[in-house]
Model the fold of this input.
Amino acid sequence: MDVEIITIGDELLIGQVVDTNSAWMGQALNDLGFRVICRTAVGDVEEDIISAIGAAKRRAPLVLLTGGLGPTRDDLTLRTLCRYFGCQLHFSEAVYADIERFFRLRGRPVNELTRLQAMVPDRCTVIRNQAGTAPCTWFEREGFTLVSMPGVPSEMQWLMTAEVLPRLAKRFRRDLYIRHRTCWIGDYAESELAMHLSGFEDGLPPFVKLAYLPQAGVIRLRLSASGPEPEAIDGSMAALQTELEGLLEGHVLAAEDKPVEVIVGERLRERGCTVGTAESCTGGAIAALLTSTPGSSAYFAGAIVAYANAVKRHVLGVSEDDLQQHGAVSREVVEQMAQGALRVLGCDYAIATSGIAGPDGGTPDKPVGAVWIAVASKDGVTSRRHQFGALRAQNVQRATLTALLMLLKKLAAG
Done:
């Protein structure tokens, strides 16, 4: 079944807030067999919201909407939905009891603005929100269904998981099964990989698609299939993934649709190993990414942000002569940083970075974006110079991902 997602809020349009809701909802709906055909962002303007709903209704019989349900004047969603569906707001004692309970548990009083969130449309199904104060509302009119949820990600996710997805599964007969298989591919340019796989793509059955998702130094390949028979789809996808991995032997870093930091953590946990970082130009970004995964204390030993050369010397044991002769952004220095992290942190693997993030500080032989990355273990150290771009934030991001991919390769090799 086709579905459209609408997100509401000026903050989304001006880039003040990144829309993570659509991505989370899209994956959850896809897993349930719903096909997201369009995602629309609209500002806090009543006429624009009505126009967006009308356009969505022409495209899909089901619309999921988030945002604009707060207690302030710019939150227009419920009033707009009442206008669209021809209903009125009325006070719900049950919703107000939920709001009182929510605030009482947090030791805060309910004020008049918050009390207004108990005003709900009189011609909809109200789904009470145990993760916040704004309820979810479910409208059905002449074969068209619209579900409105809060824009706060934690509240939306709770409502989707506990209430909306189970109701959708019960309400709509499942006639489509969607499957994805993803693998991470290293040491290929996108065009080169596409040429290598052209014959494979030509032989794909009509219900299967191959997508290329490139990012810094790596490409995710996604096989997608859909159809009415899950067993047939699963069998075809398993065979195709085996064929694909055979064509790319030695270049498959992982065959999972998970973030690299999660895959790295799982590999370390499987081996009973630990990792630490010695970071200069990435400023702790690698450590932050690794520790963003729950349970990372099982494999993450610690981090040293060695931004100053004095820290490189006195904490990590980098040679003063090498710093003077080769500079901080060099193979010699970054390898010593990684080996120093192994020693100081007592870990099994260590990642080190040293580079010129920018926007200034570059030289002809070491321009902005030049980054040395090293990965060390008791079996030795591997290092490589990378030349990224001119933008500081992008350079840090690319160096962080590339460093984790280098660690993943080292884990795969031994």
User: Anything to note?
Assistant: The CA atoms of residues 39 and 300 lie 38 Å apart. The two ends are 46 Å apart (CA to CA). The first helix runs from residue 10 to 13. The first strand starts at residue 2 and ends at 8.
